[in-house]
Amino acid sequence: MQEKQDMDRALARSLERGGESGLSPEETAKVAELWKESFRAGHKLADTVADEDKAWEVLENRIKRAQAKNVRIYRLGWAASLLVLAITGLALFLNRTPTGHEIGQKTVASASDEISILFPDGRSATLADSSSAVFSGRHTTASKKAGAPLVYSPASGSTRKAEYTTVRVPKGKRFSLVLSDGTKVWLNSDTELRYPEAFPAGSRNVELKGEACFEVAKDKKKPFLVKVSDLEIKVYGTQFNVTHYPEMQGVRTVLVEGSVGVSKLGYPEGVKLRPSQSLYYDIKANKARKETLDDTDIFTAWKDGRLVFQNEPFSLLAKRLERWYGIKVINRYDALRTERFSGDFINESATEAFSRLKMAGDFEFEFQNGTIVITAPKGK
After folding, report:
1. Is 51 contained in some domain?
2. Cα separation of 21 and 27, whole Å?
3. Can you name one GO molecular function term for this protein (predicted)?
């Protein structure tokens, strides 16, 4: 009886303070439920249940540590998430698999290499996000304002033959442009796009290496065709993401809206995708796998400056981090290769990002001269 009264007093006091932290009524109710569950399970926050101040001090310390990781728990608001984390005494927890890790937000990178553009006549130039530029072609003009995409003006008529421009985006950079037909393209790091400055009559063909997100301008008379590896993706007006990096050993197409058809070069029969569907084509095995996604954001968030990863093995995540930051990652802790991580980076530096990974994955690292060297934790 006394223990129940002590628990109720501690609960009332903590919820009162939780309200001061800005919890909604729904979040407060959820915290109350989880607090009671934690006491029933014997998860004490202090030496004595009745020591409410000590309990809250422990709780707040855990909240501060959790806040540094920006960990999200369940589908509650941010403050409630941190309280749940502290009450349950778990360091990382969000739909995790047995070997999963959850780490929190933020990262945008910097690299010394600049984005380059090669024009059909052999001219070349570099593009910096903070600079403005104007490029004149035979059929259109491309202009860029500081902090804005490269925008092509509508072409003055169609050309008989496509004259290709190539944009190369190095590791650690991202870039966007608007083609002469109005199609918007976002290019991820370590990506190359070849496209005509003006599209010939009857076709709109581009070629991709790396990763890009397309928002295709509608034109029923001119289908838009993306060639990537030995696949063709045919669309009339839609938004989709295409990824093809060497470590993938394949091509992934994710449809956000509209419809696309994916086929192998030389074969008219292909696979049609509906919104929220993806197709992964294994180049070596010559097999394709289609699936329906709960959320396409994990595949397209990069164009908005977010690096999102879900249940991803570190061996693949390391490659993405290399491209995102324009760095080199050397992993000397082999057990980490198969560990899986989930998270969302927005604004951290490379060092900050790996510090948060370290909190989740238990490893050591050093960052020198653009290289991250990972080693086993001390004592292993």
Report:
1. yes
2. 11
3. sigma factor antagonist activity
Q: Do 136 and 223 share a structural domain?
A: yes
- In tens, the pLDDT along 203-256 reads 899 999 999 999 999 988 888 999 999 899 998 779 999 999 988 889 999 999
Specify whether the CB–CB gap between 119 and 137 falls below 8 A: yes
SS3 292: strand
DSSP state letter for 171: T
Q: Is residue 202 part of a domain?
A: yes
- Residue located via tokens 């010559």: 286
**What is the side-by-side order of every strand in the sheet holding 328-331?**
328-331, 371-375, 364-368
Show Cβ contacts of residue 81 under 8 Å, excluding neighbours closer than 6 positions: 71, 72, 73, 74
CA 255 to chain centre: 16
Neighbours of 378 (CB within 10 A): 6
DSSP-derived 3-state class of residue 341: strand
Tell me the pTM.
0.69
